[in-house]
Amino acid sequence: MKNLIIQHFVPAKAGLDPVRKMEDDIPMLVKKSSENVQEYAKRFNSDYKMLSGTPFRKNLSYKCQKCAIINEEYDEYDIVVALDTDVFFTKKCNENIFFEKGIAYMGETQKRQILSLASNIINLGFVSNDTSFWSGAVYVMDRPLRKKLRNVLENTKNIENALIKFDTFFKVWDEGIFHSLCHLAGIGKVSLDQKWNYDSSLPNLEKANLIHIRHRPKTRDENYSDLKENGII
Question: What is the CATH number for 153?
């Protein structure tokens, strides 16, 4: 099998991180995440790419650009994984993410989001309670799925306008885009195990394979430092 992990980064508003540590002119957390993910990719003989700019759609925000994993240029890869730039594989993780089949993680937060989203725009035909609404921190997609979603994107009337609504009004970004495409492709409710998208604020971090650094109870930089000092990542 030939596999790929991508991450995507462009400088953006500070958002949840008004003060960020910098290294080599990029946020420290982004640099460290990239190094961690590259090391994991090498361990499983996989390629790695850090994307920039607008590789998916130029008229959508930077938070939509991980959707580029369905681009035709990656059809040479059996599995493509897209990760946020604040995730880290744990030291104890010896499992191969490329064997996972659940697309992404859907927890209680995501269940509430789909109910809210569906109640607003379900009449447009691009949202359904019968399809998962996933966290956007990690996606795992095989080639047939990526081609199926790309076909939906290329052949569904008014889909581009729906994507802009997701991006500009509902602020669900790549999560809403992949929910919509999967709904239109006839994909129901599936989920990765939580161990592949484990919030850093949760207890029992020994359960995690991939930790998503969150902005609580401290800043993300501080939470990263704590995890590093404790030997978890």
Answer: 3.90.550.10
